[in-house]
Amino acid sequence: MRAVVLAGGRSLERQVSLRSGARVEDALRSLGHEVVRLDPAADLVRRLKQERPEVAFIALHGPGGEDGTVQELLEILGIPYTGPGIAACVRCMDKVVAKHEIRAAGIPTPDWVAFNATAFRELGAADALEEIEAQLDFPLVVKPASQGSSLGVKFAASPEDVPEALVAAFSYDDRVLLERYVRGRELAVGILESDSLPIVEAVPKQEDFFNFEARYEIGRTTYLCPAELSEPEAQSVQDAARRTYETLGCEGFARVDLMLAEDGEPQVLEVNAIPGLTDTSLFPQAAEAAGLSFEDLVGRIVTLAFERRRESAALPG
Ligand SMILES: Nc1ncnc2c1ncn2[C@@H]1O[C@H](COP(=O)(O)OP(=O)(O)O)[C@@H](O)[C@H]1O
Ligand SMILES: [Mg+2]
After folding, report:
1. Which of 31, 46, 59, 80 has the most CB atoms around its CB within 10 Å?
2. What pLDDT does 315 receive?
3. What is the per-residue pLDDT for 316?
């Protein structure tokens, strides 16, 4: 089969994407496919029309690749693609949109307040900080609505930390949220098709505990898979992750990040519509713990792209 792997792009997660893409490309080759790698730029549509691939494997992360943009173009061109469809990508890319949907579905997610740059610049949102802080309690986590890899995510222990954290978050995005900090264990659940993979736990080094950006660097956090959880804990975490995946309309695969709070309740933080697929990424580690090699995983993801295509082709009208 002729496949294109889309990797690179212009988001801040370009380097991660290039690593994900290179690994996917190798896997597709060893599965016997003919592969062309495309780095999305101004000639993307032209290149796709030239290549006429039977499937596009999207290994892009962040805005542009994970937010529905590339998916829209692929649908226009009639090229089946991997991972969630347009609507799910749009919902997952914006943490505020995702949290509204998650909460509306009755799935626990930490309390939050969000506002965009316009509210700040033109509507005096700064004057509401006192009320916001009173509603949420400290500590808080301040983050941009649409980034990944912990970019711009800051811990605010007290009101004095908020202005600087807001400036940092606004440097990444025009929309920012302040979210109640959840003390507990940090977990990630990969969902393949609609089944949960074994749970991954991120165990940060003590000195990096509140430095989320630093923790993301390779080697600074230890990952355990499967996480050591009691059976009921694991059940409720996987259940929350599966329900989140379905609520947001994900297809193919995705990764749900959540905290297991000290009271034993899972609190969903976000969904990654196209999780990292590098050799240190969590999703492939979880697949491996389930007995799926990286090649098996990539093969399965491609098959799911075709199945979805056949299902939508079978719809009337
Ligand atoms: N409300 C929160 N409580 C505790 N830790 C949080 C919270 N929000 C984010 N974090 C920490 O920051 C990391 C990144 O946040 P996340 O919402 O997953 O954004 P992204 O991964 O897209 O950058 C999480 O994995 C977690 O370690
Ligand atoms: Mg995350």
Report:
1. 59
2. 60
3. 58
Long-range contacts of 45-51 (CB under 8 A, 24+ apart): 45/73, 45/77, 48/4, 48/73, 48/74, 48/77, 48/79, 49/77, 51/2, 51/4
Q: Hey, what amino acid is at 187? A: L
Atom of ligand 1 nearest to the CA of 149: 23
Q: Which amino acid is at 103?
A: R
Q: How far is CA 281 from CA 137, 221, 285, in A?
A: 33, 12, 7
Instruction: Kindly tell me the number of DSSP H helices and DSSP E strands found in the chain.
Output: 12, 13
Query: In the chain, which stretches have pLDDT less than 70?
Result: 216, 218, 313-317
Name 133's bridge partners. none
pLDDT in tens, 202-224: 998 777 777 877 776 767 788 99
Question: Cα-flanking dihedrals φ and ψ of residue 174, to 5°?
Answer: -85, -5
Longest dimension (CA), the chain: 60
For the segment 67-117, what is each residue's pLDDT rounded down to a tens digit?
999 999 999 999 999 999 999 999 999 999 999 999 999 999 999 999 999
Task: Reply yes or no: is the peptide bond before residue 226 cis, omega within 30 of 0.
Answer: yes
Pocket lining for ligand 1, CB < 6 angstroms: 110, 141, 143, 147-151, 153, 179-182, 186, 212, 257, 259, 269-270
The pLDDT score that the predictor gives to residue 313 is: 67
Residues 229, 236: Cα–Cα separation, whole Å: 10
> Is 257 within 8 Å of 263 (Cβ atoms)?
no
pLDDT of res. 309:
74
In this predicted structure, what is the pLDDT of residue 75? 96
Q: Which atom of ligand 1 is nearest to the CA of 269?
A: 17
Distance CA 62, CA 146 (A): 7
